Amino acid sequence: MESVGLEQVLAWIREIAARVEEQRSYLTQLDSAIGDADHGINMNRGFKAVLERLEATPPADIAGAFRTVAMALIGKVGGASGPLYGTLFMEMGKAAGDRATLDGQGLAEVLRAGIDGVKARGKAAEGDKTMIDVLEPAHAALSAAVASGAGLEEALQKAEAAAKEGMEATIPLVARKGRASYLGERSAGHQDPGATSSHLMVAAASEVWGE
Amino acid sequence: MESVGLEQVLAWIREIAARVEEQRSYLTQLDSAIGDADHGINMNRGFKAVLERLEATPPADIAGAFRTVAMALIGKVGGASGPLYGTLFMEMGKAAGDRATLDGQGLAEVLRAGIDGVKARGKAAEGDKTMIDVLEPAHAALSAAVASGAGLEEALQKAEAAAKEGMEATIPLVARKGRASYLGERSAGHQDPGATSSHLMVAAASEVWGE
Amino acid sequence: MKKLINQVDDVVRDELEGIAAAHPHDVRVNYHPFYITRADAPVEGKVALVSGGGSGHEPMHGGFVGMGMLDAACPGEVFTSPTPDQMLEATKAVSGGAGVLHIVKNYTGDVLNFEMAADLASDEGIEVESVVVDDDVAVQDSLYTAGRRGVGATVLAEKICGAAAEEGRSLSEVADLCRRVNGQARSMGMALSSCTVPAAGQPTFDLGEDEMEIGIGIHGEPGRERMKAAGSAEVVELLTGPILDDGPIASGDNVLAFVNSMGGTPLIELYIVYRDLHNYLQERGVTITRNLIGPYITSLEMQGASITLLKLDDDLTRLWDAPVKTPGLRWGV
Amino acid sequence: MKKLINQVDDVVRDELEGIAAAHPHDVRVNYHPFYITRADAPVEGKVALVSGGGSGHEPMHGGFVGMGMLDAACPGEVFTSPTPDQMLEATKAVSGGAGVLHIVKNYTGDVLNFEMAADLASDEGIEVESVVVDDDVAVQDSLYTAGRRGVGATVLAEKICGAAAEEGRSLSEVADLCRRVNGQARSMGMALSSCTVPAAGQPTFDLGEDEMEIGIGIHGEPGRERMKAAGSAEVVELLTGPILDDGPIASGDNVLAFVNSMGGTPLIELYIVYRDLHNYLQERGVTITRNLIGPYITSLEMQGASITLLKLDDDLTRLWDAPVKTPGLRWGV
Ligand SMILES: Nc1ncnc2c1ncn2[C@@H]1O[C@H](COP(=O)(O)OP(=O)(O)O)[C@@H](O)[C@H]1O
Ligand SMILES: Nc1ncnc2c1ncn2[C@@H]1O[C@H](COP(=O)(O)OP(=O)(O)O)[C@@H](O)[C@H]1O
Ligand SMILES: [Mg+2]
Ligand SMILES: [Mg+2]
Ligand SMILES: [Mg+2]
Ligand SMILES: [Mg+2]
Asked: Are the C-beta atoms of residues C131 and C118 closer than 8 Å to each other?
C-alpha cells in the first residue's frame, strides 16, 4: 500500500497491543536491570485500555484514533512512559488533523510532531538512553527513504532497521534520563526498556503496513 | 576414687562448662527443631558466668560451689532451663549441707534433692520429653548400683548409660512441657535439647570422677 | 545472616542504647541489670505494671513503657526470657506503693523466672500480683501440658490495664481486668518465612518457596502445621476460624481487631489482610469497632501475620481509647 | 513469590478497601479514580496538600492523610506513579479555595504526571503550586540528568507543611516552606535484600548472602554500588558520610534524624542503627533534637534502611511538634 487510512491505523494499534502483551515480561525484565521492573506491566495495562476504548467508542478518523490511544495511555499507564507515549500519540493526532489517509510523507510529518512533543515533555536528547534513541533514527530513516522516492513498504523497513539499531545502541550508553540515570555507570550494558517498546511500535507498523 | 571433695566438684563443673561450650551449636540445633534455637546459647552464657564467679569468689565448700552455680545460672541463663538448672544446683547445695565429701550414697541423695526441686518448679513428670527423662533414670541407676555395693566409677558408668538411654528415649515422645509442647505431634521424632544437656552433665561426672 | 547489627552478643545492649538515646523524655534505661522504666517512675500511689520477655518482639515490651501503659519492661536475650534479678530490680524501681502487676506471657521460661522474681519481691515487702496471658488458639490447651502461648493479647492487656492503673484502680482490680482481657481475647499467627536468631546465625526453620507455617508462635518456632502458601482471604479464614470456634467471641459482638506483622510483612499486605478479616467477620455478624494494624509483637524479621480478636464492652473500649504515650503506641496526647 | 495478597492485579484496590474499612473516621477512599482524602475535606480556607506516587511505600502517602498532614494522596500501581486524572480529581476534591500544593517526589513519572494534572487543574481555575522533593544524595546531581530522587525528606515535608497549612499559612508560604525543608534535608538508603513487585513475581535484583546494595531508591532499583555486607556502625558511616559531605548540615547544627526501615527490617535493628547514628553525629558536633524511627517510606518487603537528616530551626521544630492525626503518624491529639 502507498498510504494508510483509519482501518490500517487501527490494525497497527491492535498489532502493538498484541506484541506488548506477548513481550510484557521481556520488557519488565529489561526494566528490572536498570529500572523498577514495571515497564511491560505498564505498557500492557495501557494498551489493554486502548483496545477497550477503541471498542467502546470507535473513532471517526485517524486523528480520533490517535487521541483515543493518547487518552488511554495517559489515564492508565502512569510512570514515565505513560505521559510520554501519551504525548507522542496526542501530538500525532493533532498533526494528523482531518486527513483521511497518510502516505509516507504524511507519516513522517505526524511522527515528527509526536517526537517533538515527547522531547518537549521529557527533555531527553538522543544518547540519553531513552525511547528517543529509537524514535529519532526511525523518523530520520523514514523521511530520507520517502524523500528518495522509496515506497511505503521499503521506507518502513528502513525505519524498522534504524529503530533496531538505535535500540541496540542504547546498551552501552550511560542513562541520563529516567530511573536508569540513578544507576550512573551501572546503567551501561543494559538495553533500555522504553527504547525497546518504541522499536516494537515501529516494527509493528512495518509489518502491518508493509505490503 | 570413692568419694568427691570440693576439688573434684569444681573439676566436674569446669568439665560441664567445657562440654557446653563445645556442644553449644549442637544443643541450639536440637532446640531449632522443636524450640526456639537458643538452648546451647543459653547454657553457654550461663556456664561462662559460672566459671567467672568461681574465679572471682572461690567457694569454701561443696555446698558453696553448688550455690554459686545455681545463682549464676538463675542470673544469666533465662529461659526455662535457667531457673530449672538453677533450682537443680540450689537444692543440691542445700542437701550437701556442710559435708566435705560426697560418696556414691551422698551423691545419690544430693541429686535426689535437686531433681525434686526441678519437678516442684517445672511440674514435669517422666515422659514429658524434658531433662527429667534423663535425670530420673540417671539417679535410679546411680542409687541402685551404690546399693548393690558397686564402686563410684562403676556406679557413674551405669548412671551415664541410663542417662544416655533416657536422652535417646525422648526422641519418639510428644512433648507435654516446655516450648516443644506447642508443636503437639510434630515434636515427636526429635531429641529434647534439655535432656541432652542433662546427659552432658552426667557424662561429665562419670569422666572426671570415674577413676 | 544479614542484619543491621554489630556484635552478635551486643544486640540487646546496643538496642537499649538506641532506645535510651531516642526517647530520653519518655523512658530511662538501666543496664545492670537490663530494664526500661518510664522516665517519671515510680509514680506514687499508682499500681505499677511490669512486663518482660525475650528480645526480638519489638516494639513489645520496651516500646510500650510510658504514660498509660507499662511502668517497666525487662528485655531478655533474643527469644530468651529475662532473669529474676531483672524483674526484681525493675519491680523495685517502679513500685509506687500501690502494688505491682506482673504481666507474663505463658512460656515456661517467662513463667518460672517471673515466679522467682515475685517471690523475691514479696520477701522485700512489695505486693505483687501476676497474670499469665495465654491467648494463642493454635496450641491445644490441656492440664498436662504447658498450655497456650501468650501472644497478641499481651499488647492489648498492657494498653488497657495501663489505662486502668492511670485511673487509680487497685492492684486486684487491675489484675482482674487483665484476666478479663485475656479471657476475652484469642489469637493465631502464621509465617511465610522463618527468622534468624542472631546468635544462632541461621534461620530457625526452612520453608519452601510455596509453603507457609500455620499456628506459629513469636519465637520462630515452627507452627502446628505446614501447608501450601495461600492468599490473604484464605489465610484469614485459617486463622480466624479457630479463633471464633474457641468460644468467647460470637455473632453480635463488638471486637477490637488486631492485625499484626511478624516483622517482615509490610503494611500494604496488612491492610489487605485487614480487609479480608473485616469482610469475614461482617459475614458472621461480628463488628469491628476498634482496630490496631502494624508490627507490634514481632518475631525479628519473620514474614507473616497474626490476628487477635478481643471482645469489647464499654469499659474496655473506654480504656483502649484513653491517652497513651509510649515510643511504640501513642494517641490522645 | 509469597505475599499476603489475593489477585496480583487487585493489590492496590484491596489495600484501599482495607484502609477505608480501618480508618472511616479519618479518611475517605475514592475508587474511580483511586485517591484518598481526609474525611473532613475540603477544609474551607486552608491550603490543601496533595501528594501521591506508586504504591508499595506504605504508610506513605495514604497513611499520611489527615489533620495536620496531607489532604489527599493518589496511589498508583505498585512502584508506578499515579495518573493525571487521579491527581486532578483529588485536587478538586480537597481544594478549599486557598490553593493546592502538589508535593512531588522527583521521579520522571511522578513529575510528568503531576505536571499534566497541574495544567488541567489550573484550566479548571484551581491555583496549584508544585514542589519537587529531591533529597537522595546517592544520586549525583547534574543539569543533564533526571537529578536526584525524592525519598525520606518527603515524609518530613508532608508533616511540616501540613502543620503550616493548618496554621493558615498561604499557598506561597507553604510552598516556600516545602522547598526549604527539601533544601535542608538529605537522605541515603541501603538494602540487604531486594523486593518483589507483585505483578513481576520475582525479586527485582538478587543479592548474595554476604552482599548489600548502597544508595538504593525506594522502588527496588539496584543501588549505586554493591559491596560486602557490613555491620550497623559501618553502614551508618557509609550513609551518613555522603549526607554530611553534601552540604547543608554541619557541626553545631540541630537535626531531625529519621531512621527508616525499607519494610522488612525490624525495629530491633533500627534502634541499633539509631544508636550508631547518634554516636556518629555526636562525634561530629551534630545534635539530634528530634527523631523518627520506623517503617515510614518503604519498598515493599525489602530489608534495609535509610537515613534522613533535616537541619532544624525553631520554626521547623515547632511545626514538627504540632499535632498530627493520620493512620500512619499521630501525636498531640
Ligand atoms: N525524560 C524521558 N524522556 C524520554 N523517555 C524517557 C524519559 N524518562 C524515561 N523514559 C523512558 O521511559 C522508560 C521507562 O518507562 P516505565 O518503566 O514504564 O516508567 P518508570 O520509569 O516510571 O517505571 C525508560 O526505559 C525510558 O525509555
Ligand atoms: N516444665 C519443665 N520441666 C523440666 N524441664 C523443662 C520444662 N520446660 C522445659 N524444660 C527443658 O528446658 C529445655 C529448653 O531450654 P531452653 O531452650 O534453654 O529454654 P526455652 O525453652 O525457654 O528457650 C527443654 O528442652 C526441656 O528439656
Ligand atoms: Mg519502570
Ligand atoms: Mg529454647
Ligand atoms: Mg528461649
Ligand atoms: Mg515505575
From this structure: no
Judged by CB atoms closer than 8 Å, whether chains meet at C305 and D4 is answered as yes
Partner D contacted by A32 (CB < 8 A): yes
Q: If you search the block for the grid coordinates 515434636, which residue do you land on?
A: B187
| Closest to C216 in 3D by CA, of D280, B35, B21, B91 | B35
Dihedral over Cα of A119, A123, A124, A126: its sign: positive
Of the candidates C45, C117, C108, C133, the one whose C-alpha atom is nearest the C-alpha of residue C74 is: C117
C117-125, Cβ contacts within 8 angstroms, sequence gap of 24 or more? C117/C84, C117/C85, C117/C86, C117/C87, C117/C88, C117/C91, C118/C87, C120/C84, C120/C88, C121/C87, C121/C88, C121/C91, C121/C92, C124/C88, C124/C92
Q: How many CB pairs under 8 A join A and D?
A: 116
Q: Which are the contacts of D314, defined by CB distance < 8 A and separation ≥ 6?
A: none
Q: Under a CB-based contact definition with an 8 Å cutoff, are residues D308 and D296 in contact?
A: no
C57 is catalytic: yes
Buried b (16+ CB within 10 A) or exposed e, A56-86: eeebebbbbbbbbbbbbbbbbbbbbbbbbbb
Q: Are B71 and C120 in contact (CB under 8 A)?
A: no
Are the Cβ atoms of D54 and A78 closer than 8 angstroms? yes
The β-bridge partners of D74 are D52
Is the Cβ of D109 closer than 8 Å to some Cβ of chain A?
yes
pLDDT score, position C143: 66
What pLDDT does residue A184 have?
86
Chain A nearest C-alpha distance from D73 (Å) = 15
Quick one: how many helices (H) and strands (E) in chain B? 8, 2
The string of DSSP letters for A136-186 reads HHHHHHHHHHHHTT--HHHHHHHHHHHHHHHHHHTTTPPP-SSGGGGGGGG
Residue A23's pLDDT band (boundaries 50, 70, 90)? very high
Q: Are D224 and A183 contacting, i.e. CB atoms less than 8 angstroms apart? A: yes
More confident of the two residues A185 and A12: A12
How far is the CA of D116 from the CAs of A79, B2, D81, in angstroms?
13, 94, 13
Asked if C291 and D22 come within 8 Å (Cβ–Cβ), the reply is yes
pLDDT in tens, C22-69: 999 999 999 999 999 999 999 999 999 999 999 999 999 999 999 999
Q: Which residues of A touch D107 (CB under 8 A)?
A: 80, 179
Measured between CB atoms, does C88 come within 8 Å of chain B? no
**Which of D8, D79, D143, D187 to probe the A interface (max A CBs under 10 A)?**
D79
Model ipTM over 0.90: yes
Return the C-alpha cell found at C186: 484469642
Alpha carbons D160 and D178: distance in angstroms, whole number:
8
Contact B198, B163 (CB under 8 A): yes
Return the higher-pLDDT residue of B183 and A86: A86
What separation in angstroms does the CA of D217 have from each of C265, D53, D158, D297, D323?
A: 19, 14, 19, 10, 30
Phi/psi at D52 (nearest 5 deg)?
170, 170
Q: How many residues would you count in chain D?
A: 333
Q: Where are the alpha helices (DSSP H) in B57-170?
A: 62-76, 81-96, 104-122, 132-147, 152-169
Report helix, strand or coil for D132: strand
Pairs of residues, one from chain C and one from chain D, whose beta carbons lie less than 8 Å apart: 171
3-class DSSP assignment, residue B4: strand
